[in-house]
Amino acid sequence: MNQMNATNNAGNFTTLATYRLLRVIIVRSLVLLFAGIAIVAYLQYPRESKPKATFQDDLVRIQSTMAQLNPKEPRYAFLQVQKAQLTGNFEDFYHANQLLETFPDDRELLVLRAKIALSMHDVTQGKKLYDKLIAYPNDMRTEDLAIDIALQQGQYQHAVEMLTQRLQRDAQWSDLARYAHLLHKFGDSEAADSLYVTAQERLSAKQIKDYAWLELQRGIIDLENGQHPDALAHFELANRTYPGHWLIEEHLAETYALLNKSDKAIPLYEKVIQQSDNPMYFFALAELLETTEPTRANELFSTAEENFQQRYSRYPLAAAGHMMDIWIDAQENAPTEERRARLLQLSEMNMLHRPNADSIIQRIKVLILEGDMNTAQQLTLSLLATPWRTADVTELANKFGLSLPAHTPMQLPIEVLTNHQL
Amino acid sequence: MTQRHYMRSLLTLATGFSLIASINAWCADHNDPNAVNSIYADVPLSPADLYDIFGYPSDDKSNGEALIAQLTFAPAPSTGVFDPDMMYKIHLAGAKRAADYQGDHSLDGMLTYIETLKKTILDFKNGEIKVTFNGKGQARVDFLNFPDGDFFEIVETNQVVTITSPKGHNIKTFIGGRDDAFFNNLPGFFRSINYAPQFYKVPVEKYKTLAELPIPKTLLELEDNDLFNYNPQKPELGWTVKEELPAGPYEWKGKRYKKDANGNYRFVYDGRDAQAGRNINMVGFEIPLAFISKEPATDRIVRMWGGSYVRKASSLVKAHAPSAVESAWLGVKNMFTKELEFNNRDSDYNQVDHDGVPFSDAALSLRYDSHVGVANLKYLREFTTRFAHLGWGFGPSVSALGLPTCFDHSNSPVSVHKTYTLATEAFPRVKDCFFQKLNMPDNSWNKSGKDIPLRYTFEVFLPNLTAVDMDTSGTWPFGRRPEDQVATRFLATFLDMKKNCGATPCNVETLNEPALWESAPIEPKTVPNPRFNDKAFLPEFPYLAEPWPEHTVYPKE
């Protein structure tokens, strides 16, 4: 009996052990199977779908369409404008403008000429073209031009009134974005960011490029407010959404540099200068390489100067406006007589043609460098009378011991913000 | 590295990566003034532009009593091809037939009635058919909030398929390209309301100021109305040609209707079918009433409306991508089902267009309610002022033709451009129109022979939905059948239906009778809009005719 029990016990033990072993094998196999399936599934499911559009795709599309057209066609000129806008290169804009000029009676192309003129800070030319267009009161784009002209002339109140009317009438995402830009410049970055998000939510899947542009603007707010990690997150998102655009990559590079990540900034700048003729980027890269690769840095400084001269020959106001900030910094650190003379001349020219807050700020800084503190202070007072409230404005007010006058914050009617589908 | 922000840039003023930033958000019936309506010079054809919604009882009883519900829209990207960034919905709700209106014939009485009925008119549960696409010739059809419970099926497009519900109801489905069932002399209608975008290049942003120019609405050409009168030198204007809109002012300073040497008026319509040869895309269903309502025996009305939705850019942005765990789970699901190829999350879409009542958006609402959807009751006052505005145009035209009008135009000999800000001021003019019953030409509409009251005009437009009476043929205003000439029937709402037009009482089909125009002092002697579609409807589901071969330029006749 005992023997039987022992045998049975041994048998039970063996069965139990086998059962346990089998159970372990089955459970582990199942775990492994499910883990395998999960991994395969995880890898298979597109967490990040392919971007709907890229800079390169758009450029190729425009170029290939242009290749099939007769360069004398108006559509060719239109596409050249699109190309210029995509590349940002002044030569492309100049070529576009030449093509547009051959169609002086085409209203559509006249609008484009006016827009290019204003983009290039040439308010006089922009106004001249606008005056030809206002004979057509039916075109919303003439309102765009009027708003741009007012902004460049520093007539902020007038611009805001026109823009507010537009928003109340029929708020488009681009109007919201324009308003957001002003909100930020007028010191309400939080409201600006929120408005950019509202604009983003109105965009359809067909407007992914515009979404990226708005994301870029959100990043610029953070960048200008010194919130570099937040800015980086926006720029990275913009770059994933619409990969390869030099303007996004340049902002990414700049932010990496500010976060002391030269290893990431330098390759990006190298890529940007392959696409853009903007001397600022050559200059920025040169600064990054100044200590590690002085020879290359000097070459880049030279190229920046050459590019500036080339751009200046095409669009002096825009070329000057964009470079002056850099030269002002450079002059503070290592003054030269040649640069001093250039800054005086360019800042005066800028003030004359485009007397908005940006131009005033640059002029004040140049005057400070000159030691002409009285004139600088007088100009600062006129600057403070505008609604412009950027870091530069605060800095200048502090420098002269001036208090920042309060100004009525811009407030959009709630229906403009909430009417989702206007 | 300096702290300077390098790119203050040329783009601070320009919006978007393009100087020519598209402001045509996706954001229509054949003509409601919104941002996807391609009548505007700067708006391309958009699949978000809803054209029509048809709702009527099916003649085919083999599947039980059933409703036909068809939502049509612009054929983009092309006929029978659907944009995977779009979603369409048809809402359906069973309801009891409302009792005949017994209230005062006053603005307050109407408002009170509407307010009283608000709860039953608006606060009801509705089922929803939601259609999304995968860009591979398939559509996912979700049925939500119906008595059978929620379910979906993935179907091939451009084929009639039958979807069976969990409780065994068979729902015939057709999602594909068809001939446009809307047969209409649109340029004529636009000529009647001096609607510039049909004839001139007007950007969509100007829809409020430069769409309808401040010239009297009219059915008869006005003397010296050079902008809109038919010009034999420019026969294509408004059909295939648009010109630059001349600089204003646009007011009409004439005194009378234009007459030819024989003393005949010139009709703003010419009866031609502007939609001939054109296609649409559609989502269409034949749905058993017992599937829509738990009480089909008593719920004899089906309220229906449709919407178009476009996918948001934000839904494509990788910041909103699913987490690793979600991705793994979705990946597993993706192995066994195609449903992940479709995005049917409402939160990923913006509504673009709404379609409920023919001509509601186009003629009456002026976009006030284009995104309000069904609940347009609060616009009753605006409808009153708008109807009066139209009445001052059409009323005198009707009278000039010797027909009785319900609109009180104080015996004006010619159309007048008059606008109102106060509904109370406008209401006395439109009262008889709002509170007249819309006569039908005969009794063929009442298939059941039940005691069904004729509808009042005001009931048709509020709320913004089509109420299909299942005991009728579903002809407008008891629904809408493809063969209904709704544009002409809308004009008939300005006739006085208590009086005779000829030997019989005026009715919704009066203006569609060729004999009426043969004897009228007018040229051309034609009904305003074509009487029949350019292509015969099919005798069976999906009823709308096969599409035409794809055209890049559509024929004008």
Topology:
The complex is a heterodimer of chains A (422) and B (557).
Chain A: H1 2-44, H2 55-67, H3 74-87, H4 90-101, H5 107-119, H6 123-133, H7 140-152, H8 156-170, H9 173-185, H10 189-201, H11 208-224, H12 228-241, H13 246-258, H14 262-275, H15 279-289, H16 294-314, H17 316-333, H18 337-353, H19 357-370, H20 373-384, H21 391-399, H22 414-418
Helix pairs in contact in A: 2-3, 3-4, 4-5, 5-6, 5-7, 6-7, 7-8, 8-9, 9-10, 10-11, 11-12, 12-13, 13-14, 14-15, 15-16, 16-17, 17-18, 17-19, 18-19, 19-20
Chain B: E1 50-57, E2 66-73, E3 86-95, H1 107-122, E4 127-133, E5 138-144, E6 151-156, E7 160-164, E8 170-179, H2 186-192, H3 196-199, E9 200-201, E10 243-244, E11 265-266, E12 279-288, H4 289-292, E13 301-311, H5 324-336, E14 349-355, H6 360-365, H7 380-400, H8 423-434, H9 457-461, E15 466-469, H10 486-492, E16 500-501, E17 504-505, H11 514-518, E18 522-523
Parallel strand pairs in B: 9-10, 11-18
Antiparallel strand pairs in B: 1-2, 2-12, 3-4, 3-13, 4-5, 5-6, 7-8, 8-12, 13-14, 13-15, 16-17
Helix pairs in contact in B: 7-8
Structure description:
Chain A is mainly alpha-helical and 422 residues long. Chain A is built from 22 helices and no strands. Chain A has helices at 2-44, 55-67, 74-87, 90-101, 107-119, 123-133, 140-152, 156-170, 173-185, 189-201, 208-224, 228-241, 246-258, 262-275, 279-289, 294-314, 316-333, 337-353, 357-370, 373-384, 391-399, 414-418. The longest helix of chain A has 43 residues, at 2-44. The model of chain A has no long low-confidence stretch (mean pLDDT 88). With 557 residues, chain B is an alpha+beta fold. Chain B has a domain at 50-182 and 277-363. In chain B, 18% of the residues lie in helices and 19% in strands. Residues 1-15, 18-36 and 553-557 of chain B have low confidence and may be disordered.
